């Protein structure tokens, strides 16, 4: 990339959740629902001595994408690590449910979820987990009608129950800076030991769970640079492609075959994992 291209590029990662949503929607169509002035915040954090945020860390934006009705759900990684509590997760689940209802009523509303999250908010564990389960169900419902696109860009990554939500999306877009995994590096190290996963070894972490590796292994559908225009273009391209014959979560046997080839007795290299996942398996 030359100097002029660098100057013209707009970093997506450096934008906050609200700005990301606005940039992904068609110009002039952004309208926020339950914005910070509504003061819909967590009822539980203040009781634990934690300062709340007026939107509880989730932005719900309606508008159009490529001329079609759309909702963009942006998770603010700067608030409580993008964790999902009762309110923030309910905002996402409710929006997806309304989008599905739109489709049943003849309004082809599509959805985009911006994943910057460590998963459930520990201070609201059971409530957050229940709401995340509702997000999963809502994604599966909506994707019958319209593609649900997930985008994970960085720097927080996408972990925990929300990584399952990402996996349920029709398509997933990631940048080189993104990370995607069920458990975070520190959790893996705590449970399995530093020999299994060193949470301080950043190159190793990205080599296994970074956006580029996830794209190589087919767990991500599009790999984009940290450029707002490139990410928006990748998103529109996937919407235009429509629903695939089978979403990732519907290809269970195929992925189980791949997992069966990974030797759990020895630490595989990223190259070995990519080679296994690149194979074609017969159903």
Automatic annotation (TrEMBL):
Query: Which is one GO molecular function term here?
Result: acetyl-CoA carboxylase activity
Q: Which Gene3D superfamilies match?
A: 2-enoyl-CoA Hydratase, Chain A, domain 1 (3.90.226.10)
SUPFAM superfamilies per UniProt: ClpP/crotonase (SSF52096)
One of the GO biological process terms: carbohydrate metabolic process
- CoA carboxyltransferase N-terminal domain location: 1-254
Coiled-coil spans in chain: none
Which keywords are on file for this protein? Transferase
The highest taxon in the source lineage is Bacteria
User: Is Membrane found in the keyword set?
Assistant: no
What name is this protein filed under? Malonate decarboxylase subunit beta
Q: Does the keyword Transferase apply?
A: yes
* Pfam family, any one: Carboxyl_trans
Taxonomic lineage of the native organism: Bacteria, Pseudomonadati, Pseudomonadota, Betaproteobacteria, Burkholderiales
Which InterPro entries does the UniProt record give? AcCoA_carboxyl_beta, ClpP/crotonase-like_dom_sf, COA_CT_N, Malonate_beta
